[in-house]
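Weekly structure sync, notes
Attendees: PL (lead), two postdocs, one rotation student
Agenda item 3: pending single-chain targets
PL asked that the sequence for the first pending target be pasted directly into the notes so everyone works from the same version. It is reproduced below exactly as submitted, 359 residues in total.
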Amino acid sequence: MNRYSYQKLSAILVSIAVIGSALTGCGTSSKVSANTSSTNAAAASPKELVFYSAQGYDDAVAKAFQAKTGIKVKLVDMSTGPLAAKIEAEKSNSHWDIAWFDGDATMQALDNQGLLLQGWTPNDTSNLTQLGQSLVPADKAYYPTGVTAAAAIGVNSKLLPRSEYPKDWNDLLKPTFKNALAMNNPSVSGPTFPYVAGLLNLMGDAQGKQFFTSLKGNGMKVGETNDVEIKSLLNGQVKAVTIQDSALVAAKAEGNPIDIIYPSSGVFTLPGVIAINKKAPNAEAAKQFVEFVLSSEGQKVMLDPKNGGGDSYFDPVITGVEGSSVRQNDGINWLKVDPVKSSQNENDIKKWFNDAIIH
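Predicted structure, written out during the meeting:
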């Protein structure tokens, strides 16, 4: 889940400006054949499923679904911020059927505008784990497809003795991490916003803000992307980073000297979420697609790093589906970040962080 750029203003403006061309130029089309497993109407005249996504494995999943059902899929692949802006800009004349990206706060913002199909339950939601069930909104407007930690602590095992590994978030304030810690900007990096919002909720708003202010006073560096932070960690510019755990797992899987710590007080959920357009031109096929994604067959496609790269290192929320052995899948204290509250406070939190921590 590496494509997490939320409402970065410049990206949104560009996205809105190019909507007309994006509808014909951003997607990839697969083969077309009869859909023998859909309703009679759909089988007689299969329609194209328009799929908006910001997931690394989206193309592989689209091809697997098409091969299984014969339903043609047009993929429009963008980062999350421009994708959400595109959906909002098209709300009076929407063309998409499925939207899939990381971050329930962003999906909730679309739901708040009445853009998503509500009240529909896929056939296999009984297979969701307890964590998965907790991530389904009351109006059933979107469903979780997997989860990563919005941030975990990654340390360079060659630079930091195990005795000095942090165990919880407050340990990052120790002199060990003076000028030796980095994180991303929540206005640029999508996963970083629920990390910041989550800590403000966990610690309390005032204490949480003081925590980040103290990190700044301890010389914390703020960057923009996971790749940059991992490079600084491996180059010895910092001893620790707080970024999305799937990025850390992917880097560790490549043989890099990285150890990953999940703070004892908890880490904050960043679910992949999938939704159907309230005015979906091909709603029945869209429902089949969601059910495919939530099936063990669809999850197998998603979990293959050959298909999704770092995005494939997520924690499954489907019973009986096992995540990669490279990542820690047990013993994590997951804390849900309220998407309703987060969607309401997102702009204020990002502004505070920009004014108080970056500048």
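Discussion points:
- The CA atoms of residues 35 and 70 lie 5 Å apart.
- The chain is about 40% helix and 15% strand.
Action: rotation student to compare against the earlier draft before next sync.
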